[in-house]
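Continuing the batch. This is chain 6 of the set; chains 1 through 5 are on the previous pages. Same settings as before, nothing changed between runs. Recording input and output for traceability.
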Amino acid sequence: MLVYIDESGQGHYKGANPRVAVVAVCVPEGLHRYLTGRLHRWKHDLTDDPDPELYEPKGKHLLKPKVIAESPALWELVERIFDLILESDIAIFAVIMNRPKKDRKLQKRVLPHECRRLVERVHLYMESRKEKPEDLAVLVFDGEGLSGLPGGLSPAVSRFLFRHSEGRSYSRIVETPLFVDSRITPGIQFADLTASVIRQCHERGLVRSSPSTDDPFSLALVRFYEIVQSKTKDFKINQDIHYGFYEMPDKFLYQKEKVEETDQET
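Output for chain 6:
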């Protein structure tokens, strides 16, 4: 299982957006080539980019009122991507949070709380796939990583999965993450668009109320959000429910994560 992780908004107090969404899109390896082929074909058909394979459909460029009003071909690309998400056997998990009001003082090489909760849901999803107990999840990040993490994302992920008791318990996740070029990796592009939809819907108050019927962009965002939400799953562990779309309380933004060091065999 390839798990593409990306964010929309920035998880530090100087970020431009009031909300942040960190998203994991879980794609079975056998489905990857099909999704890639469809997206590459649509890029050729619907963009005028001289090198369409490298055209990167990012949420910050495409999920805007101006695009739906003035660029019908690009908006058709967006519509097709979300139709493809709807018809595909994929799973999507998200952590949604407020932009921090002050410096979080993140610890070097320590995975922040929102990433831990996202990885937790990936593991629970893999555990729920009892028909494929041998299947493991590979975490795949944009090469630039998530923003604002001291010491870089790769050491933080590896340290959490190798040396922290919680991370070590996630036996269905490969300990070493991959970092890819988002321009040529459709899975990251899907994660980027998905994260943008989730963030914008929460920012615009569209999750719990209906938009005006004369606002086609907001109506489209709600429709895309419903598609994405249909791909998530909640997990009941004892008496607790771990929601597939988790709205993280502000108190966890500033919580110091416990650092565990162990030399035990994995």
